[in-house]
Write a structure and sequence with these properties.
heterotrimer; A mainly alpha; B mainly alpha; C mainly alpha; A: mainly alpha; Helix Hairpins; 66% helix; 0% strand; elongated; C: mainly alpha; two-stranded antiparallel sheet; 20 helices; 2 strands
């Protein structure tokens, strides 16, 4: 069990930190959502990679096979992907409305507009 | 886009196969990768493909807004209906064992109808998202 | 037949109402369905609470798959208590919403509001009742997504950015929770909370379990608006429609506290969380910071809704202070304050909703002389404000009493003094309202004389009356909280 054989976990950590960094460091509303999506993708990998057992076959009961991979993480992640898609769609819908209301999707421009005109409808 | 002959012909050739593939993915979810979510997205992609080539008004004539919104609600109600059917037939909520005389066939039947509900809702939601985003007027100056 | 399937119906009836409302589309029917469903949920929660009080925890296997293979709905003393709070607040806010939403939302969106309201309610009830860790995440996201949209429906354009900020932070929180659950699943092999609790003591010191605890803590703290992860709350509460603010302020953060309690004491176990790790100290420190800073910031707000939002952050600090004490009195205080703060803030935001209807906004310049112009509303705000401070005779006093008892029992006199001292800051910000409403003549921006419509005033005053009632007759709240605390400390969920 060398460090290199845990490559799926290394990729998970990389995606997780990259996603969180994008959410924090970028002021563009769409870029933040992309960062969020990358962060959520790392979680999918975290669940699915350990589900594949070494030497395990597809989880359909058959006479010739004794060791099956775990199907449960796939079901969980299917749900999580759908939740992620819904969140992304919702975030983009809000971004479209923000663009129509403020004329910009850069966070600092929006905050400046709110400071200058706090009662704008 | 409507006048481009290549796009029109390719579109008319591909869209039926896309819809057929969506149904294939739907029904083969027991035996291979597939199921309601994937099938719903593929079915919606077929309609969105049609909208991209022939224009949004044509797509709106094909699948009206009210139908799409009804699809979103109906799919959820089908899923909940399967749950309540389990209640009505004497088991717990979402009990598939009681849906048929043979419990294993009951499982099969329950999963089938639940996936149909998921297909309808996911296709409806994807189409609704497309209609809402594509149907917005462009801001002045673009 | 209904009685034995009550745990499932508690969640699925509100869930089924949402697509029905979308199909029907008509606003009055939508409101009618939402109100009927909220009242049904409240009746179901009360029935379940009496069942649990009489006969012990109720377990319901979804799909007739026995736990731990299937998803189990489990109602015990703690979850029954929270169910009653959530459904009770929903039952009061739904009738209020009729006039409030009609005034604040465009007519063609009203039916969507009620569909989302039912979804949010179903999600919150599902979070409370489920005994499966991943099912909890699903319901968490159902209620969170619905609340992001509900907040974005606010009139002011800043509601959009508030909803966006809540979306980003809330999704990060939920994803952290999922990471924690994933690590727990990898270590224990099960998703059922009771089964996890049985398998974890053997694995308690291992790094994945500690990492899971850390991830779940941070994730749930984002949802619960624990300092310093509370940044989404003031904007979200200030700019959302009035009915939404009242509903979310009274329920969403409270259910997140429930999740924290369930995982700390019900899954990981007090021996690990309290005995070996410094969680109580961390919670204590963060809670004190929350109470002091949020109360002080509330003093300087120019808008009553924002002031109450910061006050909410401070009051959540009191709840987590009780959790951090981790003693019988401390946990009783936390659970009791969960309930009392829910009804107090619910009452306050419903009354402010009435002001918003009459005055357009709740900025302090519009509240001058409100005592003469809207006497019943002002009196309600003062009474609920007394409960916020913790004056004897109101519900807030009971929570503060148990907090002080817990502090004295742990021989932390400074903590008891702190609880009393911070209540004085609450006096200061409630006094700001009293000063504006009663000691100043009506100004140019004050609304015309006339109360909010009765449909809005009656639900609000019902909650105000509840604040006073539960301050005088504590049998339900304290008994429920005490059994919940004993259940948590006893170990088995």
């Amino acid at each position: 069990m060398s460090v290199a054989s845990h490559y799926s976990y290394w990729i998970t950590v990389l995606l997780m930190t990259a996603g969180l960094y994008i959410v924090i460091a970028r002021g563009n509303l769409v870029k933040k959502l992309i960062g969020l999506a990358i962060f959520q993708t790392s979680v999918y990998l975290l669940y699915i990679a350990p589900g594949k057992l070494i030497g395990g076959t597809a989880p359909i009961v058959a006479e010739a096979f004794k060791l099956y991979s775990n199907p449960l993480p796939h079901v969980l992640i299917l749900t999580a992907i759908v939740v992620g898609v819904a969140t992304l769609a919702l975030g983009l819908a809000i971004t479209v409305r923000v663009r129509e209301t403020y004329g910009s999707i850069e966070e600092d421009e929006i905050l400046a507009a709110d400071r200058d005109d706090p009662d704008g409808a | 886009m409507r006048r481009e002959p290549v796009l029109r012909v390719v579109g008319k050739l591909l869209i039926p196969y896309m819809l057929l593939f969506a149904l294939y993915v739907q029904f083969h979810g027991d035996f291979g990768p597939g199921g309601g979510f994937q099938a719903g997205v593929i079915a919606a992609a077929a309609v969105i493909f049609y909208a991209l080539i022939f224009g949004l008004p044509a797509a709106r004539r094909l699948v009206p807004e009210t139908v799409v919104e009804a699809m979103v609600a109906l799919g959820v109600l089908i899923y909940l209906g399967v749950g309540f059917a389990g209640l009505a037939l004497g088991g717990n909520y979402l009990d598939y064992f009681v849906l048929d005389r043979d419990p294993v066939a009951g499982q099969h039947r329950g999963i089938f109808w639940v996936e149909v509900g998921v297909l309808v809702t996911v296709a409806g939601v994807m189409l609704k998202i497309f209609y809402v985003f594509a149907g917005r007027a462009r801001p002045a100056g673009e | 037949m209904i009685l034995e399937h009550l745990p499932a119906l508690q969640v699925t009836v509100p869930l089924a109402a949402a697509p029905l409302i979308v199909l029907v589309r008509q606003s009055t029917v939508a409101w009618g369905v939402a109100t009927a469903v909220s009242w049904f949920a409240f009746a179901a929660a009360l029935l379940l609470a009496t069942q649990v009080a009489g006969g012990g925890p109720v377990s319901y296997a979804l799909g007739s798959w026995p736990p731990p293979w299937g998803i189990e709905y489990r109602v015990d003393a703690l979850s029954a208590f929270v169910l009653v709070l959530v459904s009770g607040v929903a039952a009061v806010v739904a009738p209020f919403a009729w006039r409030s939403v009609a005034a604040e939302l465009p007519r063609d969106r009203v039916y969507l509001f009620y569909a989302l309201y039912c979804l949010c309610l179903a999600g919150l009830l599902g979070m409370t009742i489920t005994g499966d860790a991943f099912n909890l995440f699903v319901f968490m996201e159902i209620s969170s997504l619905a609340s992001y949209v509900l907040i974005a429906l606010g009139r002011h354009r800043r509601a959009l950015l508030a909803a966006y900020q809540y979306l980003i932070l809330g999704t990060i929180g939920a994803t952290f929770y999922v990471i924690g659950v994933g690590l727990l699943y990898l270590m224990t092999g099960t998703l059922n909370l009771a089964d996890m609790a049985a398998r974890l003591p053997a694995l308690a010191g291992t790094r994945p379990v500690l990492a899971a605890l850390a991830f779940i803590t941070v994730g749930v703290s984002l949802k619960l608006a624990l300092f310093p992860l509370h940044l989404w709350l003031p904007n979200a509460y200030a700019y959302a429609p009035s009915a939404v603010t009242a509903f979310l302020a009274a329920t969403a953060t409270k259910v997140s506290v429930y999740i924290l309690l369930r995982f700390y004491f019900g899954v990981f176990g007090a021996r690990l969380v309290v005995g070996e790790l410094p969680m109580p100290e961390i919670l204590l420190a963060l809670s004190i910071l929350a109470i002091v800073t949020a109360s002080l910031v509330a003093l300087w707000q120019a808008d009553l809704k924002r002031l109450l939002a910061y006050s909410s952050v401070a009051q959540i600090g009191y709840i987590t202070l009780g959790v951090g004490m981790a003693s019988r009195d401390g946990l009783t205080a936390a659970v009791v304050h969960l309930f009392n703060h829910g009804i107090t803030k619910g009452a306050l935001f419903l009354l402010v909703g009435g002001i918003a209807l009459r005055a357009g906004r709740a900025g302090f310049e519009r509240l001058q002389g409100l005592g003469q112009v809207m006497p019943l509303t002002s009196l309600g705000i003062v009474l609920a404000g007394l409960s916020l401070i913790g004056v004897p005779g109101t519900a807030g006093f009971i929570s503060k009493w148990y907090l002080v008892l817990g502090a004295i029992e742990a021989e932390r006199w400074w903590l008891a003094a702190l609880v009393v001292a911070t209540s004085l800051i609450a006096v200061a910000y409630v006094w700001r309202f009293v000063e504006a409403a009663y000691l100043a003549p009506p100004g140019a921006a004050t609304p015309q004389p006339g109360e909010a419509p009765r449909a809005m005033l009656v639900p609000a005053w019902l909650l105000v009356a509840a604040c006073i009632w539960f301050g005088l007759d504590t049998s339900f709240t304290v008994r429920g909280a005490r059994s919940a605390a004993l259940l948590l400390l006893g170990g088995a969920p």
